[in-house]
Amino acid sequence: MTSRLLKNMICAVTLGTSVLSPLAHAGLFDDDEARKAILDIRSRLDSDKQRIEGLTRNVLDLNNQIQQLQRDLADQRGQNEDLKNQLANLQQSQKDFYNDLDGRLKKFEPQQMTVGGVTGTVQPGEKEVFDAALTKFRNGDYKGAQTDFRTFTAKYPASPYQPEAQFWLGNAQYANKDLKGSTATLQGIVTKYPTSPKAAEAMLAIASNQAESGQTAAAKKTLQDLVARYPDTESAAEAKKRSAKLK
């Protein structure tokens, strides 16, 4: 009985083993495939991750390069702007230089000018001589002014400043008590430059010389002629007032 039971148990174990063995192999096979699939997925994920990291680094590198290029471009634009400013300054300096040079050269060249309605050629240094003589007169140096204006009228006979120079010469002569010489000089303006604004003023000064010399009739006649010849001038208005006072 016992022997039979043992035998049956051995058979049962043998049968169970034969039945379970294929199932065990099947389970082992499924686990290996799963692990292999997982490892394969992990490998691909790692590979993709590395590629993504590589692409990210490349993108960052490109972004850094773009930023550097932008900075370089900004620097280049700044340099270009500086160069443009330097060029503009250089061109302006060159223009100023030539303008200054032209102005300096013109001082050594005769110039056509119109002074008090008289047009003529002004020689280099001519105006400076005239201005210097006028400054002496205004400073009360009548003798020096008389000398300088006489020199001027002799040196620059065709000057458009002649009426002005002769007018102030006549006034300097008057200040130096040379009434006769003053009248002759002033009369030269009326005769030679009748259209000059100084002509009416010269006639008014002549009348003053005549009145001061006791030539009342001559003075009154000069004033009347002044009003007739230059009726719309300030000198004519003054002549009317003086004429009314002469007896």
Description of the molecule:
With 247 residues, the protein is mainly α. It folds into 2 domains: 39-109; 112-245, Tetratricopeptide repeat domain (Serine Threonine Protein Phosphatase 5, Tetratricopeptide repeat, Alpha Horseshoe). 82% of the residues lie in helices and 4% in strands. The chain contains 8 helices and 2 strands; from the N terminus they run H-E-E-H-H-H-H-H-H-H. The chain has helices at 2-106, 126-138, 142-155, 162-175, 179-192, 197-212, 216-229, 234-245; strands spanning 111-115, 118-122. A two-stranded antiparallel ribbon has the order 1-2. Helix 3 packs antiparallel against helix 4 (162-175) and helix 4 packs antiparallel against helix 5. Mediates coordination of peptidoglycan synthesis and outer membrane constriction during cell division. Residues 126-247 form the Outer membrane lipoprotein BamD-like domain. It comes from Pandoraea sputorum.
